[in-house]
């Protein structure tokens, strides 16, 4: 054999072996992973044009395709029992409550002993993980009857994948490492977008990691809702999901229950081609004669093969019932679309003869169902004589299908809301999107009761097709951006029947009180009681005492307002200059002053040592050899020192340089300072420079003996600065002592107070008393004036000034769509659970921030599409964008802000009310770098987030802080849920007319009250204070969101 033939033989043999290995591996994966790569759906032939959207197709051997419910499982024959069918729940449960009764079940008076509870799928996902798991626990523990939803199916697929992955050690370890990285990323940024993070991880993965990524289908979201639920499932809950059938069939009620939908015919055939429809082979009664029990024919035998267990329990005695069962079995088994699990789970409409998951294209399948059921032979069925009415017109008879009407109950299509048609019931009313959760309650009937129709009908009224809602997105989920439509949850005033049973009710509850929300008697957010001292408001009305449920500020040493009601600064910070020789005790005196003032955070110490100049390489060599003079005024950057001190004195922010004595060099980093009411500038040359002396309100010189200063200097430099004693003495004699005699000691003549020794308590007490007096003179209290401005503004005739006109306030009001009104209705309800309040608050904040984006500048941008067509659009023309929340209640808007603008920094400021005066106090500040640095702040656009503007005291302070940092007034966008027309908004807009204010609603009233005080630091007597509440408002938003 020639070498070329040998090579060819080896190549063929190698290919054959690889093929065998590949097939063996595929079989192994199918057994463990429970998926097929692509192929059969199982015992039914697949509807080939609709495969699962996932890259792996679930193994249909794990499906329960059809389950029949018996008379006892669907007890419509018993007048004492009911069937309660519930729409899509999506994990809307509040597991934190402990009261056992449940709102929707409480509404329908559900009795587990008498009633049968049924769900239409999608019982989990989309809601918080705890809610989904609580629903699954309830369903599995009570063994509730239901069908599988498309989201339930995704959870099952993830569970199967995780079981397979756990058998591969390296894959399991890689998953654990990846999940740890995701948790770290979440801690750093709680609102990080998961899918963006996953894409970044996939792109940056190594070759080995890329091989693991390929095992996860690209459209699966690892660590998402479905993954977390699948990972947390117990065996009982997982088995419950596996046992859920795709379709429920109730032969005694001639009813189907599915999640997505079913078709009564094959849409691939033309509408007039009745002969080719599967129902054409089903036997029927061509003449209006009384039927008798006859032998089973060949067509019946074919249908009965494999599906005899689905036939009604009474079919042997009633031929009509028997034939109806056969026709319903034909719908389940002979129409290919109804055998495709993907179609049954995701069907919303039919487009060009194919099933589609889009609701806004083609023909909604319930409309097709109604049209075909309406044209069935045997439109009516009288039990008195079991006659079947047949149309006498032969031509009309040809247009009818050989079937009897059957009903169907389904979910999945939230965009249509409560979609009640003849013979079809759509129960998904979008509770996960803030709408309602709906239950269909069917009352049983005694067997001997009279009825007119075995099927749903609307008496004496023509059943009109309702306009179906649209779902513009192209995903598995319903569009959560659809506006709330009141038509979708209203039941029309028509008499409804389900088969021959009366529909007891169709009950819808708001999403805030979804089916499994525990029934809670809602506590008031503010307890109205009686104060110890009767009080009245400015109009003479009695003022109720209010018991606060907010966190008590234990230490209220914040920064009080430094501006007036016009928004302008009324006082500068109080600046003290402390000079003295090296190691004379200047820093100790400064610290004693801070300690005597109560260690309040608005007192800072600014050291002159931080302002040593930057040294070049030559100067650094001299400094390390102790040959550089650090005690001459030229060694200090006096202009920079004066500039930073001037900024702090004028209540602006400043970035102080950082100097390293070990390296003898100024570092690149800076220290941010802002918000000081008292500034203590200390340094050996603090009184030497005239520009510095002009900034001081009080000048202090600390006097000390030279030998004592030398001893302290040696100890300090050795211990703190790592220097040698010889170098310290040499530097002292060469530079320090001459500088002290030439520059430092003469500057004592400029001092207002000379402190002889650093432990002089009398001098320090004198200084502290003087500081307190000056601070009291500079304090500003105007909250009461801006809270109810109408009280302080009267016309010449003595009448009250009319209230502000909404148009004059120049607010950007969120469009009051039905969806927004529905959200506010839920949020204003004091009985809304905390979980629902958080969910809908986040939803509303997202809409507000989206609305606020209109105030950013935009520039035109041209994009060239792949087909070489230029498209003109716009892009944000702001160099820096950031957000700042006013804590605590402003934090309720932060998640919505991050959802809309994901990649921008977000800072915060803690502003609370003083325990006695009620004035706003700045307690903490953590701003983004875009605001901290003045040259960046001048180009930054800042979204200021707070829950409401009532008295506007916090808003005044927050805006003033941003202006002090250099943010232009027209670059501030204030986003809030509520604004009180009667409150301080008018004064705020007058003070800052160029600030944009975006709000969701405007309330008219402000209720004056008295808040009981707490005994503590700064308020030893526990005195209360006056407060104002927005009416009707949303309660204490911070408490409701965080507590």
Automatic annotation (TrEMBL):
<comment type="pathway">
    <text>Pyrimidine metabolism; UMP biosynthesis via salvage pathway; UMP from uridine: step 1/1.</text>
</comment>
<feature type="region of interest" description="Disordered">
    <location>
        <begin position="451"/>
        <end position="491"/>
    </location>
</feature>
<dbReference type="GO" id="GO:0016787">
    <property type="term" value="F:hydrolase activity"/>
</dbReference>
<dbReference type="GO" id="GO:0044206">
    <property type="term" value="P:UMP salvage"/>
</dbReference>
<feature type="compositionally biased region" description="Basic and acidic residues">
    <location>
        <begin position="451"/>
        <end position="460"/>
    </location>
</feature>
<dbReference type="GO" id="GO:0005524">
    <property type="term" value="F:ATP binding"/>
</dbReference>
<dbReference type="InterPro" id="IPR027417">
    <property type="entry name" value="P-loop_NTPase"/>
</dbReference>
<keyword id="KW-0418">Kinase</keyword>
<dbReference type="GO" id="GO:0004849">
    <property type="term" value="F:uridine kinase activity"/>
</dbReference>
<keyword id="KW-0547">Nucleotide-binding</keyword>
<feature type="compositionally biased region" description="Acidic residues">
    <location>
        <begin position="461"/>
        <end position="484"/>
    </location>
</feature>
<dbReference type="Pfam" id="PF00149">
    <property type="entry name" value="Metallophos"/>
</dbReference>
<feature type="domain" description="Calcineurin-like phosphoesterase">
    <location>
        <begin position="82"/>
        <end position="230"/>
    </location>
</feature>
<feature type="domain" description="Phosphoribulokinase/uridine kinase">
    <location>
        <begin position="575"/>
        <end position="757"/>
    </location>
</feature>
<dbReference type="InterPro" id="IPR004843">
    <property type="entry name" value="Calcineurin-like_PHP"/>
</dbReference>
<protein>
    <recommendedName>
        <fullName>uridine/cytidine kinase</fullName>
        <ecNumber>2.7.1.48</ecNumber>
    </recommendedName>
</protein>
<dbReference type="InterPro" id="IPR029052">
    <property type="entry name" value="Metallo-depent_PP-like"/>
</dbReference>
<dbReference type="InterPro" id="IPR000836">
    <property type="entry name" value="PRTase_dom"/>
</dbReference>
<dbReference type="Pfam" id="PF14681">
    <property type="entry name" value="UPRTase"/>
</dbReference>
<dbReference type="InterPro" id="IPR006083">
    <property type="entry name" value="PRK/URK"/>
</dbReference>
<dbReference type="Pfam" id="PF00485">
    <property type="entry name" value="PRK"/>
</dbReference>
<dbReference type="InterPro" id="IPR000764">
    <property type="entry name" value="Uridine_kinase-like"/>
</dbReference>
<keyword id="KW-0808">Transferase</keyword>
<feature type="domain" description="Phosphoribosyltransferase">
    <location>
        <begin position="815"/>
        <end position="1008"/>
    </location>
</feature>
<dbReference type="InterPro" id="IPR029057">
    <property type="entry name" value="PRTase-like"/>
</dbReference>
């Amino acid at each position: 054999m020639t070498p070329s033939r040998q090579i060819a033989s080896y190549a063929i043999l190698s290919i054959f072996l690889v093929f065998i290995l590949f097939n063996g591996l595929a079989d192994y994966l199918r057994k463990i992973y429970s998926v097929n790569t692509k192929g059969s759906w199982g015992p039914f032939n697949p509807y080939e044009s609709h495969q699962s959207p996932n890259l792996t197709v679930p193994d249909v051997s794990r499906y329960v395709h059809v389950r029949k419910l018996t008379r006892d499982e669907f007890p419509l024959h018993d007048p004492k029992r009911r069937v309660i069918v519930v729409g899509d729940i999506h994990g809307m449960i509040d597991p934190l409550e402990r009261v056992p009764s449940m709102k929707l079940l409480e509404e329908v008076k559900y009795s587990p002993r008498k009633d049968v509870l049924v769900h239409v799928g999608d019982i989990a996902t989309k809601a918080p993980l705890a809610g989904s798991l609580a629903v699954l626990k309830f369903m599995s523990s009570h063994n509730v009857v239901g069908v599988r939803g498309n989201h339930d199916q995704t959870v099952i697929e993830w569970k199967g994948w995780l079981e397979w992955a756990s058998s591969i050690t390296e894959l399991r370890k890689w998953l654990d490492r990846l999940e740890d990285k995701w948790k770290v990323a979440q801690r750093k940024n709680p609102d990080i977008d998961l899918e963006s993070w996953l894409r970044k991880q996939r792109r940056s993965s190594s070759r080995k990691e890329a091989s693991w990524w390929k095992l996860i289908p690209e459209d699966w979201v690892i660590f998402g809702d479905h993954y977390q639920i699948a990972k947390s499932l117990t065996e009982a809950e997982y088995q419950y999901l596996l046992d859920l059938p795709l379709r429920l069939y109730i032969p005694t009620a001639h009813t189907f229950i599915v999640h997505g939908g079913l078709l009564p015919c094959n849409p691939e055939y033309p509408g007039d081609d009745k002969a080719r429809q599967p129902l054409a082979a089903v036997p029927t009664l061509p003449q209006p004669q009384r039927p008798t029990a006859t032998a089973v024919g060949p067509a019946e035998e074919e249908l009965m093969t494999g599906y005899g267990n689905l036939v009604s329990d009474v079919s042997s005695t009633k031929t009509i019932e028997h034939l109806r069962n056969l026709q319903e079995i034909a719908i389940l088994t002979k129409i290919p679309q109804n055998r495709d699990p993907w179609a049954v789970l995701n069907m919303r409409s039919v487009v060009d003869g194919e099933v589609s998951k889009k609701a806004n294209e083609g023909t909604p399948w319930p409309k097709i169902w109604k049209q075909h059921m309406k044209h069935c032979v045997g439109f009516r069925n009288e039990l008195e004589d079991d006659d079947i009415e047949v149309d006498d017109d032969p031509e009309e008879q040809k247009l009818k299908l050989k079937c009897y009407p059957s009903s169907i109950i389904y979910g999945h299509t939230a965009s249509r809301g409560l979609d009640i048609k003849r013979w079809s019931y759509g129960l998904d009313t979008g509770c996960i999107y803030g709408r309602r959760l709906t239950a269909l309650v069917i009352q049983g009937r005694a067997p001997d009761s009279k009825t007119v129709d075995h099927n749903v009908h609307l008496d004496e009224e023509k059943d009109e097709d309702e306009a179906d809602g649209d779902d513009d997105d192209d995903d598995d989920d319903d569009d959560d951006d659809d506006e709330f439509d009141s038509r979708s949850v209203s039941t029309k005033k028509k008499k409804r029947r389900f088969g021959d049973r009366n529909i007891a009710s169709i009950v819808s509850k708001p999403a805030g009180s979804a089916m499994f929300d525990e029934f809670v008697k809602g506590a008031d957010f503010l307890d109205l009681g009686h104060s110890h001292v009767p009080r009245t408001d400015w109009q003479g009305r009695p003022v109720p005492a209010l018991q606060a449920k907010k966190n008590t500020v234990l230490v209220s040493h914040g920064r009080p307002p430094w501006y007036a009601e016009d928004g302008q600064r009324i006082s500068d910070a109080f600046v003290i200059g402390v000079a003295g020789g090296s190691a004379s005790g200047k820093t100790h005196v400064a610290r004693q002053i801070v300690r005597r003032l109560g260690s309040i955070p608005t007192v800072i110490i600014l050291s002159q040592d931080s302002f040593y100049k930057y040294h070049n390489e030559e100067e650094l060599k001299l400094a390390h050899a102790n040959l550089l003079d650090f005690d001459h005024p030229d060694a200090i950057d006096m202009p920079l020192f004066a500039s930073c001190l001037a900024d702090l004195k004028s209540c602006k922010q400043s970035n102080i340089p950082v100097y390293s004595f070990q390296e003898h060099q100024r570092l690149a980093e800076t220290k941010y300072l802002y918000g000081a009411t008292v500034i203590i500038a200390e340094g050996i040359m603090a009184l030497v420079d005239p520009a510095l002396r002009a900034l001081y309100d009080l000048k202090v010189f600390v006097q000390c003996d030279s030998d004592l200063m030398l001893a302290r200097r040696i100890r300090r430099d050795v211990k703190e600065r790592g220097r040698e004693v010889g170098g310290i003495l040499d530097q002292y004699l060469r530079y320090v002592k001459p500088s002290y005699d030439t520059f430092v000691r003469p500057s004592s003549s400029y001092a207002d107070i000379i402190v002889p020794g650093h432990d002089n308590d009398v001098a320090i007490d004198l200084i502290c008393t003087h500081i307190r007096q000056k601070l009291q003179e500079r304090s500003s209290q105007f909250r009461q004036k801006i809270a109810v401005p109408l009280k302080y503004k009267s016309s010449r005739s003595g009448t009250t000034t009319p209230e502000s006109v909404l148009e004059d306030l120049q607010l950007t009001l969120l469009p009051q769509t039905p969806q927004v009104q529905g959200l506010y209705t839920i949020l204003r309800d004091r009985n809304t659970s905390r979980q629902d309040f958080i969910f809908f608050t986040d939803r509303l904040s997202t809409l507000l921030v989206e609305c606020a984006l209109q105030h950013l500048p935009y520039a035109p941008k041209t994009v060239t599409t792949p087909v070489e067509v230029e498209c003109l659009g716009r892009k944000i023309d702001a160099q820096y964008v950031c957000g700042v929340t006013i804590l605590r209640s402003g934090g309720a808007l932060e998640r919505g802000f991050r959802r809309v603008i994901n990649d921008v920094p977000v800072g915060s400021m803690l502003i609370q009310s003083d325990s006695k005066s009620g004035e706003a106090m700045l307690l903490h500040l953590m701003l983004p770098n875009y605001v901290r640095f003045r040259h960046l702040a001048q180009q930054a656009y800042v979204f200021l987030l707070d829950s409401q503007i009532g008295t506007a005291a916090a808003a005044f302070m927050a805006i003033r802080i941003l202006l002090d940092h250099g943010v232009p007034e027209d670059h501030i966008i204030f986003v809030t849920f509520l604004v009180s027309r009667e409150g301080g908004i008018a004064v705020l807009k007058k003070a800052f007319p160029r600030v944009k204010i975006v709000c969701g609603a405007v309330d008219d009233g402000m209720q004056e009250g008295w808040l009981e005080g707490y005994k503590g630091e700064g308020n030893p007597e526990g005195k209360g204070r006056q407060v104002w509440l927005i009416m009707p408002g949303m309660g204490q938003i911070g408490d409701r969101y965080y507590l």
